[in-house]
Specification:
By secondary structure, the chain is α+β, with helices and mostly antiparallel strands. The chain has six helices and nine strands. The termini are far apart. The chain binds heme C.
Length: 262
Amino acid sequence: MKITPRNLDFHLRAARRTAAQLGILLAALSATLLSVGCMHRQSAAPALHAKATGSAIVIVSGDRQLGSPGSLLPQSLVLQVNDDQGNAVPGAVLQLAGPAGVTIRPAQALTDDNGQVTVRLTLGGISGLYPFTATSPDAHGKTVSLLIPEYAAGYQQQVGFQVNATYCSRCHDSNSTVEQVSNYDNLAVKPHAFTSGDIYNKLSHADLSNIIAHGGVAVNRSALMPAYGWTLSKPEIEAVISYIRLISDPPYRAPGLVYDKQ
Ligand code: HEC
């Protein structure tokens, strides 16, 4: 069609339409390229070639840490790959995965000369248990794996963590550390670790606050469990309970509303 002053407007509109369509096409194309680029970058970590394989993954340090939601955990997680004799295996591939929202650096690596990999973990933004999974291929084409719990704790749970470290863990935690020698072995009646969900999840909030405030004797249990009602404030007792609920394994599920059960 010949362009004349009369149909000029029509031609201009058609040209603009074509340009707009071209624009959309270009945008779509670049978006595709970008996303391909992203996908590529995510999987770009060069595939690691195992120089050796192990048969177990063990935690050296850094599990069961408490951090604020969204924060980098204070200590590195150090994992080790061992062979079936329990000896460290250098040059094994170790991969780490975690729940949505976490950052794992590095997410895969070869174990160093000591058979170890050191990883920094950043938690997601919601408080609760963060289970990480470490995997490593073994000699039989299978994978060995290990679950590593970490916790994102709100303010109250962090207060509870401190209360536990100051007052409770010397009896309730059977592990002795350099900073604190455990009293657990000296106790005639053994308390449970606060992680023992099979015991603690059956105790109601009232059960817990009673035994903590009034001691073992008041609830017909051992006098070796002291009363903390004079030492700790109500909010501190609440805090240690919310810490106990946080670290419970299996996880604690708050009881449903009454009409939920009917
Ligand atoms: C001096 C040692 C000691 C300290 C310190 C201690 N406890 Fe205990 N606790 C015990 C013993 C022993 C039992 C077991 C009592 C029984 O079964 O008769 C117990 C039992 C409990 C129980 C009942 C569940 C269980 O583990 O059997 C709770 C809850 C509890 N303690 C909370 C706490 C809290 C919270 C603190 C810190 C504020 C604390 N305890 C500090 C010795 C201790």
